[in-house]
Protein backbone atom coordinates (compact mmCIF):
# COMPACT_ATOMS: atom_id res chain seq x y z
CA UNK A 1 0.00 0.00 0.00
CA UNK A 2 1.06 3.54 -0.66
CA UNK A 3 1.39 6.17 2.06
CA UNK A 4 -1.97 7.46 3.24
CA UNK A 5 -3.94 4.40 2.09
CA UNK A 6 -5.88 2.48 4.71
CA UNK A 7 -4.06 -0.81 5.17
CA UNK A 8 -3.84 -3.85 7.38
CA UNK A 9 -0.80 -5.98 8.15
CA UNK A 10 -1.80 -9.63 8.15
CA UNK A 11 0.40 -12.30 9.68
CA UNK A 12 -0.42 -15.74 8.30
CA UNK A 13 0.31 -18.81 10.40
CA UNK A 14 0.83 -21.75 8.06
CA UNK A 15 0.51 -25.43 8.94
CA UNK A 16 3.88 -26.67 10.16
CA UNK A 17 4.71 -23.45 12.03
CA UNK A 18 5.95 -21.22 9.18
CA UNK A 19 4.55 -17.71 8.99
CA UNK A 20 4.25 -15.01 6.36
CA UNK A 21 3.38 -11.34 6.79
CA UNK A 22 2.14 -8.85 4.23
CA UNK A 23 0.31 -5.53 4.16
CA UNK A 24 -2.89 -5.24 2.14
CA UNK A 25 -5.00 -2.23 1.31
CA UNK A 26 -8.49 -2.35 2.81
CA UNK A 27 -9.77 -1.88 -0.77
CA UNK A 28 -8.04 -5.11 -1.90
CA UNK A 29 -10.29 -8.04 -2.72
CA UNK A 30 -10.49 -10.89 -0.22
CA UNK A 31 -9.73 -13.38 -2.98
CA UNK A 32 -6.38 -11.61 -3.43
CA UNK A 33 -5.43 -12.68 0.10
CA UNK A 34 -6.19 -16.30 -0.82
CA UNK A 35 -4.19 -15.94 -4.05
CA UNK A 36 -1.26 -14.50 -2.08
CA UNK A 37 -1.13 -17.54 0.22
CA UNK A 38 -1.36 -19.92 -2.70
CA UNK A 39 1.29 -18.18 -4.80
CA UNK A 40 3.63 -17.65 -1.83
CA UNK A 41 3.86 -21.42 -1.58
CA UNK A 42 4.65 -22.07 -5.26
CA UNK A 43 8.13 -23.07 -6.41
CA UNK A 44 9.67 -19.92 -7.89
CA UNK A 45 13.02 -19.90 -9.67
CA UNK A 46 14.66 -16.90 -8.02
CA UNK A 47 17.27 -16.43 -10.75
CA UNK A 48 14.67 -16.27 -13.53
CA UNK A 49 11.99 -14.58 -11.42
CA UNK A 50 9.30 -16.83 -12.87
CA UNK A 51 7.42 -19.99 -12.03
CA UNK A 52 9.48 -23.11 -12.58
CA UNK A 53 6.67 -24.52 -14.73
CA UNK A 54 4.20 -22.62 -16.87
CA UNK A 55 0.70 -22.89 -15.41
CA UNK A 56 -1.76 -24.89 -17.53
CA UNK A 57 -4.57 -23.11 -19.32
CA UNK A 58 -7.81 -23.76 -17.40
CA UNK A 59 -10.87 -25.24 -19.13
CA UNK A 60 -13.61 -22.84 -20.25
CA UNK A 61 -15.88 -23.26 -17.20
CA UNK A 62 -13.10 -23.62 -14.66
CA UNK A 63 -13.78 -22.36 -11.14
CA UNK A 64 -10.71 -22.30 -8.92
CA UNK A 65 -11.02 -23.93 -5.51
CA UNK A 66 -8.48 -23.31 -2.83
CA UNK A 67 -7.34 -26.33 -0.81
CA UNK A 68 -7.15 -24.31 2.39
CA UNK A 69 -9.27 -22.07 4.59
CA UNK A 70 -8.41 -18.89 6.43
CA UNK A 71 -9.41 -18.56 10.08
CA UNK A 72 -9.38 -15.20 11.80
CA UNK A 73 -7.27 -15.61 14.93
CA UNK A 74 -9.37 -13.40 17.20
CA UNK A 75 -12.22 -14.48 19.43
CA UNK A 76 -14.47 -15.99 18.41
CA UNK A 77 -12.51 -17.75 15.65
CA UNK A 78 -14.23 -17.45 12.30
CA UNK A 79 -13.56 -19.12 8.96
CA UNK A 80 -13.41 -16.83 5.96
CA UNK A 81 -13.98 -18.00 2.38
CA UNK A 82 -12.78 -16.26 -0.82
CA UNK A 83 -16.41 -15.66 -1.75
CA UNK A 84 -17.39 -14.31 1.67
CA UNK A 85 -20.90 -12.94 1.47
CA UNK A 86 -21.24 -9.53 2.99
CA UNK A 87 -24.61 -8.76 4.49
CA UNK A 88 -24.02 -5.04 4.97
CA UNK A 89 -21.55 -2.51 3.70
CA UNK A 90 -20.48 -4.55 0.69
CA UNK A 91 -18.72 -2.83 -2.16
CA UNK A 92 -21.60 -3.63 -4.52
CA UNK A 93 -19.58 -5.19 -7.34
CA UNK A 94 -19.87 -8.82 -6.25
CA UNK A 95 -16.28 -8.81 -4.96
CA UNK A 96 -15.64 -8.74 -1.24
CA UNK A 97 -13.09 -6.16 -0.14
CA UNK A 98 -11.07 -6.52 3.06
CA UNK A 99 -12.94 -3.54 4.48
CA UNK A 100 -16.14 -5.60 4.16
CA UNK A 101 -14.88 -8.46 6.36
CA UNK A 102 -15.59 -8.23 10.09
CA UNK A 103 -12.36 -8.75 11.97
CA UNK A 104 -10.22 -7.28 9.20
CA UNK A 105 -12.01 -3.99 8.58
CA UNK A 106 -11.47 -2.51 12.03
CA UNK A 107 -7.88 -3.49 12.74
CA UNK A 108 -4.44 -2.38 11.61
CA UNK A 109 -2.99 -5.85 12.25
CA UNK A 110 -4.48 -9.33 12.18
CA UNK A 111 -3.42 -12.90 12.69
CA UNK A 112 -4.88 -15.35 10.19
CA UNK A 113 -4.45 -19.11 10.52
CA UNK A 114 -4.17 -21.11 7.30
CA UNK A 115 -5.87 -24.51 7.62
CA UNK A 116 -5.46 -27.07 4.84
CA UNK A 117 -2.99 -27.20 1.98
CA UNK A 118 -2.14 -24.59 -0.65
CA UNK A 119 -0.61 -25.40 -4.05
CA UNK A 120 3.10 -26.14 -3.60
CA UNK A 121 2.69 -26.74 0.13
CA UNK A 122 2.99 -30.14 1.75
CA UNK A 123 0.32 -31.21 4.26
CA UNK A 124 2.81 -30.41 7.05
CA UNK A 125 2.92 -26.81 5.85
CA UNK A 126 6.41 -26.79 4.40
CA UNK A 127 6.69 -24.97 1.11
CA UNK A 128 8.56 -25.75 -2.06
CA UNK A 129 11.40 -23.32 -1.27
CA UNK A 130 12.11 -25.22 1.95
CA UNK A 131 12.36 -28.43 -0.07
CA UNK A 132 14.92 -26.73 -2.37
CA UNK A 133 17.07 -25.80 0.64
CA UNK A 134 16.62 -22.02 0.44
CA UNK A 135 17.63 -20.35 3.68
CA UNK A 136 14.51 -18.55 4.88
CA UNK A 137 14.59 -19.30 8.56
CA UNK A 138 12.46 -16.31 9.50
CA UNK A 139 9.57 -17.24 7.22
CA UNK A 140 8.71 -13.55 7.01
CA UNK A 141 7.70 -11.88 3.78
CA UNK A 142 6.85 -8.25 4.19
CA UNK A 143 6.22 -5.64 1.56
UniProtKB/TrEMBL annotation:
Residue segments, region Disordered: 120-143
Gene3D superfamilies named in the record: Phosphatidylinositol 3-kinase Catalytic Subunit, Chain A, domain 1
Pfam families the UniProt entry points to: UBX (PF00789)
Protein name per Swiss-Prot or TrEMBL: Uncharacterized protein
